[in-house]
């Protein structure tokens, strides 16, 4: 089960965060800092997996932004979650049309809505871009 | 026109800009505080039109790590709103700003129920999302019926959400599993891929919570295999295809589920299906590899045919050879699993695995190390250890420690000969002596002392290594110990070995060698070992007594009390009045019993004077100190048996290695030591009260199970107030998981009073420990014993444990 999904930039500023297990604000801040430091210390060709405390961490960098998923589970299919990160990035990219860090930051609630269509209760809910974006535009029209 | 403009609140965009313009953290705090105040103010206005904008800003503020609790109630109001946008933002705020520990959450149950029965699918979806993300057990129970109903909704958008909400409900309220169990076949047969995927999630959740009902799901294995078949055989629809694989996420879920519901023996169709996936999946892209990886893991989990296993191992072998580090990482990971079942299959990839030890990526190296360690056996230990030592040279500190630990363990467990064992440890000590655990130094010392034919060789080798390198503490300690014990070989013997001649040393060279370890910056423990080595050398190499005396005298003014005391004692011992006693006193250490990890029979080649009859080990320093004294003053009527009435539990044996001169705190009663100032030896009369003293130290295990171990080390700190006991409680984590939230509470009988200092930390890593101090006053000392009732609470993997235990193994009149 996914415990958290983070989008953090290279300066360590969190741009989007969803937690599916309870953590206090200060615990979150500490965790985010530690994870970014760990990710930054790793080179280009190194593998995209980390172990941090009780979590298996799968991360991938896109331009200046790290996409980080933490999973609390014994048997994690790291490759599948790596694929999911890519799926998430593609979806955001399609939604924002060439997504960049600023798009996510300035439209934080929209980014949350996209993520809400893809992950729920720490489970992958939907990975089909067409369905996800179709749904979101339907909701936006209603509003 | 001014007024309405003021009404317009800052937009999120402007807030972000303002925050980004801040140059210092203080400025940022000020901006956030001001904005928070404005948002709070705006909430008071019931007719306020920009509530949703405020919530978006709160999301941002929270993400920066500032408190946003004041916005919680506002979210509830927004959810109840009839305005669609407001409701949506309200639900978002609810899931992000609140958590299941917040009491206000309860208040939303009603609104959620109303929304779940809405005619608008989007609104139902929002309520389900919120429920799935943050609902408490109570809310889950209240809304369970509605969710169950929605699992059969005609819109797949609702069905998939209801299924995941169901997973939340069974996790929070395991007793509701039955309600959802019946829905399982229906969702597994759903025509929407994504509903099936989430159905699998629900099923996995149920199995995780109640592993014993796994059997009930074996009947669905046909269903799952059929779903999987359909998936592989469908013509590629671009909508579902990622990297040339049809819906890899669903495939991964289904294969994972297969491993859980395969039953005792997997059906033929499942085996076929797995074989088909393993052979036909396109490995060019990550998506395909994810499916292959899951397939391999399932094959290893279920009792597969050997053909299938070979297929799986070959896929991992291919991953291992791939240049992509991600694939190598998962390959090592799954081989680690396989190694426990099928060692031979993994052995075939030995060379590749060992190669991974020099990968640039530490994550890979660590996994490879773990795996390499598992592969070592008697027949390949020489080769693998040699390669591991080669990697040690280049390893960075972080990796060195892990490597050394595994290396030493491997050497200890599998060494074919003692000579090889010693040589290998020596190489490790020379390269990374500071990382070598104390136990290894101790066990190597044991090997030397128990193998007479090795002694001369070892001491020569160690001395040469020491002369070249005094920076590796482990090496220094072992070398000093050996020089002290077997220094006589250094002067008397020249050895021929395969790699050259080991020359005999002059006494001067030896003393100079020892002197090198006693520089002012050397660690105190090294100096302690050096002092003991020197005093022992005074009998082994009598010609060097003058230089020995000089070196020991330097330490008389040492700042460290232990060093100072030892130096004073040894100088006394060098006096001519002790000539007759010195020889026997400084005999070789007896061969002590060995920690069970290594099975080396003890031979009594030397029968030292200090060996006590029938006492296997000398458990603590206080005891040993007494022994020396008994020996020195053996004309005095001290009855050893009476002194030895202590009830100590033997400590790990390696501690007795040097405990004769150990640095552990000295007993607090006036021990008959040599007076450091005057050099006088206390008059014999003073010793008489010894006979009556209750055991001063008492160490024992107060509680032990498979996860933790609680040791009590008790001392009587004040010799004239024996009712007081100082107990140092050491709790250690024996399991392989982190222990958090450790709490120890205690209760005692009326005749006891106690106080407790809490531990510095409440969490322990695997192998870690924490220490607490307890002061106990036994008002009925001598009449009633000490007994403590302990309650131990802690959490592993967020599962709380609570244990009760009564500790009554204190000596009767303690």
UniProtKB/TrEMBL annotation, chain A:
Its main location: membrane. Transmembrane segments: none annotated. The keyword Magnesium does not apply. It is found in: Endomembrane system. Residues 1-140 form the AP complex mu/sigma subunit domain. GO terms for cellular component: endomembrane system; membrane coat. Gene3D superfamilies: 3.30.450.60. One of its GO terms (biological process) is vesicle-mediated transport. Belongs to the adaptor complexes small subunit family. This is AP complex subunit sigma.
TrEMBL record, chain B:
Pfam families: Adaptin_N, Alpha_adaptinC2. Residues 695-811 form the GAE domain. One of its GO terms (biological process) is vesicle-mediated transport. It comes from the Eukaryota. InterPro entries: Adaptor_Complx_Large_Subunit, AP1_complex_gsu, ARM-like, ARM-type_fold, Clathrin/coatomer_adapt-like_N, Clathrin_a/b/g-adaptin_app_Ig, Clathrin_app_Ig-like_sf, GAE_dom. Keywords: Cytoplasmic vesicle, Golgi apparatus, Membrane, Protein transport, Transport. GO terms for cellular component: AP-1 adaptor complex. Residues 601-621 are annotated as: Disordered. Gene3D superfamilies: 2.60.40.1230, Leucine-rich Repeat Variant (1.25.10.10). It is found in: Cytoplasmic vesicle membrane; Golgi apparatus. Its main location: membrane. Belongs to the adaptor complexes large subunit family. This is AP-1 complex subunit gamma. It comes from Blepharisma stoltei. The lineage of its organism: Eukaryota, Sar, Alveolata, Ciliophora, Postciliodesmatophora.
């Amino acid at each position: 089960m996914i415990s958290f999904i983070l989008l953090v930039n290279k300066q360590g500023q969190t741009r989007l965060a969803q937690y599916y297990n309870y953590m206090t604000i200060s615990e979150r801040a500490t965790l985010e800092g530690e994870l970014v430091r760990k990710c930054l210390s790793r080179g280009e060709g190194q593998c995209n997996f980390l172990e941090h405390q009780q979590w298996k961490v799968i991360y991938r960098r896109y331009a200046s932004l790290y996409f980080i998923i933490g999973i609390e589970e014994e048997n994690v299919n790291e490759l599948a979650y790596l694929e999911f990160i890519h799926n998430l990035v593609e979806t955001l990219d399609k939604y924002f049309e060439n997504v960049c860090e600023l798009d996510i930051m300035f439209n934080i609630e929209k980014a949350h809505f996209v993520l809400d269509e893809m992950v729920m209760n720490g489970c992958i809910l939907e990975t089909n871009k067409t369905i996800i974006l179709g749904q979101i535009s339907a909701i936006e029209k209603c509003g | 026109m001014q007024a309405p403009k003021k009404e317009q609140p800052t937009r999120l965009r402007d807030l972000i800009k303002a925050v980004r313009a801040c140059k210092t953290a203080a400025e940022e705090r000020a901006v956030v505080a001001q904005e928070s105040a404005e948002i709070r103010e705006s909430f008071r206005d019931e007719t306020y039109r920009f509530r949703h904008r405020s919530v978006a800003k709160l999301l941002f503020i929270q993400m920066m790590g500032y408190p946003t609790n004041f916005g919680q109630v506002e979210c509830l109001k927004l959810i109840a709103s009839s305005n669609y946008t407001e409701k949506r933002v309200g639900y978002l705020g609810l899931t992000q700003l609140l958590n299941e520990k917040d009491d206000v959450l309860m208040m939303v149950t009603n609104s959620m129920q109303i929304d779940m029965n809405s005619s608008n699918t989007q609104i139902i979806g929002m309520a389900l999302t919120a429920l799935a993300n943050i609902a408490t057990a109570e809310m889950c129970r209240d809304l369970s019926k509605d969710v169950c109903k929605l699992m059969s909704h005609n819109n797949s958008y609702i069905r998939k959400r209801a299924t995941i909400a169901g997973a939340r409900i069974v996790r929070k309220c395991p007793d509701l599993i039955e309600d959802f169990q019946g829905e399982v076949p229906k969702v597994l047969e759903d025509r929407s891929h994504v509903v099936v995927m989430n159905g699998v999630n629900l099923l996995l959740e149920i199995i995780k919570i109640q592993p014993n009902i796994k059997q009930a799901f074996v009947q669905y294995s046909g269903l799952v295999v059929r779903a999987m078949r359909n998936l592989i055989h469908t013509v590629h629809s671009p909508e579902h295809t990622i990297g040339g694989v049809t819906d890899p996420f669903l495939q991964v879920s289904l294969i994972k589920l297969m491993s859980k519901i395969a039953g005792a023996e997997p059906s033929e169709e499942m085996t076929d299906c797995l074989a088909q996936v393993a052979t036909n999946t396109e490995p060019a892209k990550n998506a395909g590899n994810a499916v292959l990886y899951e397939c391999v893991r399932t094959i290893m989990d279920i009792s597969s045919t050997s053909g299938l296993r070979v297929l799986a191992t070959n896929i991992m072998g291919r991953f291992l050879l791939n240049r992509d580090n991600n694939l190598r990482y998962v390959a090592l990971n799954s081989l680690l699993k396989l190694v426990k079942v099928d060692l031979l299959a993994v052995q075939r990839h030995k060379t590749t695995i060992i190669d991974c030890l020099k990968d640039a990526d530490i994550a890979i190296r660590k996994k490879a190390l773990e795996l390499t360690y598992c592969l070592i056996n008697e027949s390949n230990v020489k080769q693998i250890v040699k390669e591991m030592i080669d990697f040690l040279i280049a390893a960075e500190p972080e990796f060195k420690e892990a490597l050394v630990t595994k290396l030493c363990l491997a050497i200890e467990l599998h060494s074919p000969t003692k000579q090889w064992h010693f040589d290998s440890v020596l190489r490790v000590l020379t390269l990374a002596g500071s990382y070598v655990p104390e136990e290894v130094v101790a066990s190597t010392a044991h090997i030397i002392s128990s193998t007479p034919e090795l002694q001369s060789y070892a001491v020569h080798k160690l001395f040469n290594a020491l002369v070249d390198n005094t920076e590796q503490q482990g090496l220094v300690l072992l070398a000093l110990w050996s020089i002290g014990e077997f220094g006589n070989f250094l002067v008397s013997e020249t050895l021929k070995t395969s790699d050259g001649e080991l020359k005999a040393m002059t006494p001067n060279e030896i003393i100079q060698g020892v002197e090198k370890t006693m520089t002012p910056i050397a660690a105190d423990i090294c100096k302690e070992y050096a002092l003991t080595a020197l005093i022992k050398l005074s009998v082994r190499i009598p010609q060097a007594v003058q230089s020995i005396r000089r070196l020991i005298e330097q330490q008389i003014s040492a700042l460290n009390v232990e060093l100072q005391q030892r130096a004073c004692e040894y100088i006394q011992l060098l006096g001519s009045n002790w000539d007759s006693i010195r020889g026997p006193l400084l005999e070789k250490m007896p061969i002590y019993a060995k920690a069970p990890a290594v099975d080396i029979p003890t031979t009594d080649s030397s029968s030292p004077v200090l060996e006590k009859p029938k006492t296997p080990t000398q458990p603590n320093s206080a005891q040993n100190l007494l022994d020396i004294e008994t020996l020195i003053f053996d004309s005095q009527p001290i009855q050893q048996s009476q002194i030895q009435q202590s009830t100590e539990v033997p400590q790990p044996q390696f501690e007795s290695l040097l405990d004769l001169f150990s640095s552990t705190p000295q007993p607090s009663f006036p021990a008959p030591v040599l007076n450091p100032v005057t050099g006088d030896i206390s008059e014999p009369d003073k010793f008489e009260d010894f006979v009556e003293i209750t055991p001063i130290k008492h160490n024992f295990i107060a509680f032990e199970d498979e996860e933790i171990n609680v040791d009590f080390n008790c001392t009587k700190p004040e010799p004239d107030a024996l009712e007081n006991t100082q107990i140092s409680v050491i709790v250690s984590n024996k399991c392989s998981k982190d222990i958090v939230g450790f709490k120890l509470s205690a209760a005692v009988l009326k005749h006891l009073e106690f106080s407790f200092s809490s531990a510095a930390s409440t969490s322990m890593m695997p192998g870690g420990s924490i220490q607490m101090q307890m002061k106990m006053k036994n008002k009925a000392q001598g009449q009633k014993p000490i007994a403590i009732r302990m309650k131990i609470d802690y959490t592993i993997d967020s599962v709380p444990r609570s244990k009760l235990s009564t500790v009554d193994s204190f000596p009767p009149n303690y």
